[in-house]
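Thread: "does anyone have the structure for this chain?"

Original post by V.I.:
We have the sequence but no experimental structure in hand. Need at least a predicted one for the grant figures.
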Amino acid sequence: MQKILVPVDYSDDAANAAVYALEIAAKSKSEIILLHSYHVPVVTTEAPAQTYEILIENIQKDEEEKMKIFYEKLIKSGNGRFEGIDISTKVQLGFVIESICEVAENENVGLIVMGTRGASGIKKALIGSNTSDVIKRGKVPVLAVPEGASFKGLDKIVFACDYHLTENENRLYVLTELALLFNSEVLIFNVVDDREKLPSFDHALQGLKIENILRGAEHSYHFADKDNRDVSEIIDDFVVSQKADMLVTIPKRLDFISSLFHKSLTKEMACHSKVPLLALPE
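Reply from O.Q.:
Generated one for you, tokens below.
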């Protein structure tokens, strides 16, 4: 995880997510890239090209000044903890999602950390936000930090896994890296229809892959019966009961996560966890 990308809109949520990224960077010695993308108001076709260029130049300068203020406040908030971290800033014209994906690819970013305004629980963290759109692109792990969540270390990480892993397993090693960096306990959690059902050969094979990926990190296996309940609620309940500091999923591999993107399933959850969600790409 040599580089961590943090998209910012200068909000408190963005600052909160940036703090998470900086705490990780302080441990991993990663470089931080703060990125802000902006739009230009629509200009009438009658306006001369020079007017448009001047407008862009003025907006660019204004946004760069805002980024400077954001950066200085961010460093100051760390009370000295963040001063040794390599931090660069980018302010560019473009659409938010496209800019994030472009910079992530060009800079060979290993992790994207984003704030999710008003997000709580799995569903809210994945629906109706720029974060969900970046997660859908699925090329770089995305850490979604809920509004109001404060960094308190990573003692426990819940990995919600259905034993159907990504084909590119290298992208899962960010979980192991975080666990080793913070000496975390990884709780591998699976919701099953029948706890007594014998595991298939495929599940056993995937289990061996998980063991290999998490080699060196403390981990344990946990199961829960579905019992006709919403799977996302069961996972949230487990996260809360274990007082976990992070939830990890592979959205495209978990059918219940994929289904959360449908508007018909955006109802409020009974249980609202306030932990960051790390979405690993497929």
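V.I.: this helps a lot. Strands lie at 3-7, 31-38, 87-93, 111-116, 142-146, 156-160, 185-192, 218-225, 246-249, 277-279.
O.Q.: and Residues 152-282 form a domain with the Rossmann fold fold (CATH 3.40.50.620).
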